[in-house]
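Entry 0007
Protein: Biotin synthase
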Amino acid sequence: MIRLSLGTAIELGILNKKSDIPPTTAYIMIGNRCNNNCAFCSQSTESSTRKDKLSRVIWPEYSKEEILNAFKNYKGSNIKRICIQSMASNDAHETVKEFIEYIKDDIDLPISLSAKLESSDEIEKFFSYGVDKIGIAIDAANKDLYESIKGNNYNEKIKFVTDMAMKYPGKISTHIIVGLGESHEDIYKLYTYLIGNNVTVSLFAFTPVKGTKMENINQPSIESYRRVQLMTYMINKGCLKDSFKFEEGYLKDIKISENIKQDINKGYPFEIRGCKDCNRPYYNERPGSTIYNYSRSLDKEEIDKSIKELNL
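Output (structure tokens):
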């Protein structure tokens, strides 16, 4: 089964609708069902939600021929990368291989893969197929949360991700979901460790999905998320721990240099970060609702609002 995110299908012209923020990456989901049982995920083995959803995004199904033809006939300039989200199953991984082989001679775009890969041989195999970046989800920012929500060994996962990032510099990414029950200090420790080991890290805001175990958990407050965005932005800029004051794990105060203040006034910390050319429109939010990750440059009103939401 091959699906496109709704925004991707619109951008490629397969679906005759409008989107106000075009995706800069074409998002493709492959697989019928995931073998994982992540408590927050619509694709979990125990989830009762519809299977054409991932987070809050709808993913309509198309044939590989329809998808390839859409790419061949694409006249736009927004799409600069393909990102394949693979279910955790052998069948899905085999379909990923077949799909890459089917499109790679006709589509001159870099390909990222997000998948549950657990050995160096698997990583090497997908790089050999033509993938240039691989994302391995960590999601939860501390050991207890990770093992209760995802059911796997946290220390083994962190070691594997960082080992692969050191072996393949600039090619391994992960993401952290803010709002699963972690503290800001947990995120600081994990984020700093990952960045120090050559891992590219994206942030998501937890999004409750009906039919999952965590459907009744609220999204993080926008103040909490904005502070994490600013903290991680500053870590990327080389700021040290003495820039951040934690009280019982919560980020209570931030020392902001003049350079960082200038970046805040341009809205940079509130824009999506992660893999190049990945803007993930409305992955955490609905149009018109609170925006956690801005998928484009912010205007003056949005910058002012984001600074107010920081509440520092």
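Curator remark: The mean pLDDT is 92. Residues 25 and 278 are 5 Å apart (CA to CA).
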